[in-house]
Design brief:
It contains 3 helices and 7 strands, in the order αβαβαβββββ. It is an alpha+beta fold.
Length: about 200
């Protein structure tokens, strides 16, 4: 909206100041017309994974994730595998996650490094999930080129495709609870629990 200033009775110098203000106001209005970046929807359910030593006993939790990080640096993504659930993900849960991914919702997986894996039972890494595959009895990686060579031949019940795997310490295990029963994640880390679906709502 343009403001009409009353110029009557003003000296030439005062009139020049008013004109300059009008010009600056117009420039600022034009520069404020920018395109907003659409917000990202965070899926309310995340995945929790606790790591000890890898399946071959060669790497602790930190070293294991460094191998996956290296694959992401080289390939842009990686397939992470686990047999934490003997029967794999339930069909219903897998479909929910895949639908969220297709709707461009962001799904996170939080990695806890257990005491047996060189950690202190706390969240150490976080990654974004962009695809999943799961089957009872296990399957091979959906993509060998996007899998660390160490685990290309693994037969696992769950494969999770990751990007942006990074160190993370903003949220702690005490900030999350299990979706299934509402119990705090932090209270289950001294048991054999090493995989699950969590929320911080």
């Amino acid at each position: 909206m343009t403001i009409k200033w009353d110029m009557r009775g003003k000296m030439p110098q005062q009139q020049a100041i008013v004109v300059a203000k009008d010009k600056n106001s117009t420039i600022m209005r034009k520069s404020s017309n920018y395109t907003t970046v659409p917000s990202v929807t965070i899926h309310p359910v995340s995945i929790f994974m606790k790591l000890g030593w890898d399946s071959k006993g060669d790497f602790d939790g930190f070293q294991t994730l460094e191998e996956y990080k290296r694959c992401i640096e080289n390939q842009g993504c990686t397939w992470f595998s686990t047999n934490a659930l003997a029967s794999g993900m339930s069909k219903k849960q897998l479909e929910k996650f895949k639908k969220a991914i297709s709707n461009k919702e962001r799904i996170y997986i939080y990695f806890v490094i257990g005491k047996s894996g060189g950690g202190v039972n706390e969240i150490e890494f976080r990654a974004e999930v962009i695809d999943m595959a799961s089957a009872k009895g296990g399957i091979k990686t959906p993509s060998e080129i996007d899998t660390p060579k160490l685990w290309i031949n693994e037969i696992c019940t769950i494969w999770i495709k990751l990007i942006r795997l990074r160190r993370y310490n903003v949220k702690k295990t005490e900030d999350f609870k299990f979706v299934s029963n509402g119990r705090p994640l932090s209270g289950s880390l001294h048991s054999n629990c090493c995989f699950g679906y969590i929320t911080n709502d």
